Amino acid sequence: MVRKISTSLIVLFVAFGLFSFSTGKTEKYFEIAKNLDIFATLFKEVNNFYVDDINPNKLMKTGIDAMLESLDPYTNYIPEDEVEDYRTMTTGQYGGIGAIIGKRNSKTTILMPYEGFPAHTSGLKIGDEILSVDGVEVVEKNTNDVSKLLKGQANTKVKLKIKRYGVNEPIELELTRQKIKIDNIPYYGMVNDEVGYIHLTDFTSNASKEVKDAILALKEKGMKSLIFDLRDNPGGLLNEAINISNLFIPKDKEVVSTKGKAVEWNKVYATLNQPVDIDMPLVVLVSSRSASASEIVGGTIQDYDRGVLIGQKSYGKGLVQATRPLTYNSQLKVTTAKYYIPSGRCIQALDYTHRNEDGSVGKIPDSLKTEFKTKNGRSVFDGGGVDPDIVVTRKETPAILISLANKGYLFDFATIYASKHKTIGAAKQFKLSDEEYKEFIKSIEGKDYDYSTKVEKNMNELIESAKKEKYYEDIKEQIESLKTKVSHNKQSDLNKFSAEIKDALEQEIVSRYYLQKGIVEASFDNDEDVKEAINIFKDPAKYQKLLTKTSVK
Predict the structure, then answer these.
(1) 250 pLDDT band (50/70/90 cuts)?
(2) Candidate list 202, 229, 303, 412, residue with the active-site label
(3) SS3 for 202-229, per residue?
(4) CB 217 within 8 A of CB 228
(5) Per residue in 86-113, pLDDT tens?
(6) pLDDT reading at 217 higher than 90
(7) What's the mean pLDDT in 345-365?
(8) Is 190 helix (H, G, I), strand (E, B) or coil?
(9) What residues form DSSP beta bridges with 297?
(10) Pick from 96, 99, 95: which is nearest to 127 by CA?
């Protein structure tokens, strides 16, 4: 065993050039070599003698994933067979038909064709069920396997057999795959005569050019104020975040700095170009799932007092990752540094292992925060995410609506509606009539969409606690009476939450005619963040006051 460890240690030292290192570092690398040897022998013994057959690849990946999970959520192992999916995620490019697919009622279904790509131009519609791909039946296959069948080299053919609602016989289509570049901006347009809106969903390559082009196009339409929507944007490429920030702030201004163990990788990133507009009133929308590059842009806008942030505290991801090549074409995405925005604060959550259901970091004690200053002297704080200047609490989605959506009843009704109505009005103006809503209610009669409200769940927990602590018999009568009062009634809920359900139905229906763009436009009337932004633009004095010496906490 000693000879084995010594051999491993020598190999490790030669690989890293560590012969000249101090005793402390020598001991550290001895521990690394020793534990690598232990791991290798353990892996071998388990594979040789474990009672059941073991898949070595799966077992190793499980071990690696568990090891990396103990570090942070963003350091990940990417095996060879997942590298292509990772590349798609970071570049937004792949060869295929250009459509989102998923399971609806256990059937592989077209959920959204991307406008202008083969799925859309060939006539595939939302709700179409995929029966086979190139003659391979896919009824029993999972979404990931079907997706792999649909993807392939650009300019190659793929044959689909689909089933469409209202059409008796299956439809056969031949599509030519092409290079799919998913836009970072699924929608931009005018909310009203003066307010423009840009929805950025990713920071893959070319994102900054897309945002710049959108701004210039909206200016030609008369835009005088801009709503820049970064809600639920998970981030992406650092250089794109810097270039997007540069569209709104002057040249040679610091955007972000990185600091990590590898000192030679530490760097300060500043704007390199002339901005597009440094004066136009700007609102940036953020949410609890706006992360990483989104937080760099939002935080930079806030630190330079360039615009007003509206929404919820952002996610709190202030860590930088780099991709390192491993053997056998696998890769390691590893956290290498923390990043700091212009005020000097790091928005990394103090505790990234415990989060609320919506992804937010929750309330952080003031004693754990450090105060920083924006350009105008406003107080801002670190500790987890970027705090908006105006907090808009997101309305809780009714339990009945969640159930109806999860069961696919909204989706199915929209598919049936589209088969009966060849056209509808503009997405912004489309409204479901009371009679049509009654049709929806009739369509779900007798169907299963049971659910429990939060009050009912809390009541059940109370009963369980009372029984455990032997108080239940003493308060049984009162509890049962209260339980009867809070017990939901499906018919009552369909009326009580009709506005929310109709809104969801309208967006689903509009998507059948106007795809992703239609969903965005249909949401404007009921979007609390957008409405708050418009109100701020209507009150220039309040807008300016928000950017002066006040605390963002």
Answers:
(1) very high
(2) 303
(3) CECCCHHHHHHHHHHHHHHCCCCEEEEE
(4) no
(5) 777 677 678 899 999 999 989 999 999 9
(6) yes
(7) 71
(8) strand
(9) none
(10) 99
- Between CA 520 and CA 322, with CA 231 as vertex, the angle to 5 degrees is 125
The HSE-up count of residue 494 (CA atoms within 13 Å, CB side) is 16
Q: For the residues 370-389, what does the mean pLDDT come to?
A: 93
What residues form DSSP beta bridges with 107? 104
Vertex 168 angle, CA 146 and 176, to 5°:
40
Whether 196 and 225 have beta carbons less than 8 Å apart is answered as: yes
Residue pair 316/384 in contact by the 8 Å Cβ criterion: yes
Q: What is the DSSP string of 218-280?
A: HHHTT--EEEEE-TT---B-HHHHHHHHHTTS-TT-EEEEEEESSGGG-EEEE--S--S-SSS
pLDDT of 356 reads 66
DSSP 385: S
Q: What is the DSSP letter of 493?
A: H
Alpha-carbon distance of 261 to 263, in angstroms, equals 6
The C-alpha atoms of residue 411 and residue 505 are separated, in whole angstroms, by 8
* Eight-state DSSP code of residue 329: G
- When pLDDT is cut at 50, 70 and 90, the band that residue 158 belongs to is very high
Nearby residues of 550 by Cβ (< 8 Å), 6 or more positions away: 378, 379, 389
**For the chain, what is the total number of helices (H) and then of strands (E)?**
18, 22
CB atoms within 10 A of CB 512: 18
Active site annotation includes 303: yes
For the chain, give the percent of residues with pLDDT over 90: 68
Contacts of 357-361 spanning 24+ positions with Cβ under 8 A: 358/288, 358/289, 358/394, 359/288, 359/289, 359/315, 360/288, 360/312, 360/313, 360/315, 360/385, 361/313, 361/315, 361/316, 361/385
Nearest Cα to Cα of residue 163 among 112, 107, 121: 107
Is residue 253 part of the annotated active site? The answer reads: no
Calculate the CA 361 to chain-centre distance. 16
Confidence of residue 11 (pLDDT cuts 50, 70, 90): very low
- Cα torsion 153, 156, 159, 165 to 10°: value is 70
Backbone phi, then psi, for 102, in 5-degree steps?
Answer: -170, 175
- Contact present, 143 and 530 (Cβ < 8 Å): no
Active site residue 232: no
Confidence of residue 461 (pLDDT cuts 50, 70, 90): confident
Q: Is 488 exposed, middle or buried (0-12, 13-18, 19+ CB in 10 A)?
A: middle
Q: Report strand pairing: 157-163 vs 129-133.
A: antiparallel
Q: State the CB neighbour count (10 A cutoff) for residue 49.
A: 7
* Count of all residues that appear for the chain in the document: 553
**109 to each of 143, 158, 214, how far by Cα in Å?**
9, 17, 32
Residue of 317, 407, 428, 502 marked active site: 317
At 442, the amino acid letter reads K
What span, in angstroms and rounded, lies between the C-alpha atoms of 160 and 133? Answer: 5
- The sign one gets for the Cα dihedral 301, 305, 308, 309 is positive
Six token digits for residue 108: 């592989």
What mean pLDDT do residues 106-130 have? 96
Q: Note the pLDDT of residue 362.
A: 64
| Paired tokens of 432 | 């479901």
Of the residues 8, 290, 292, 343, which is catalytic? 292
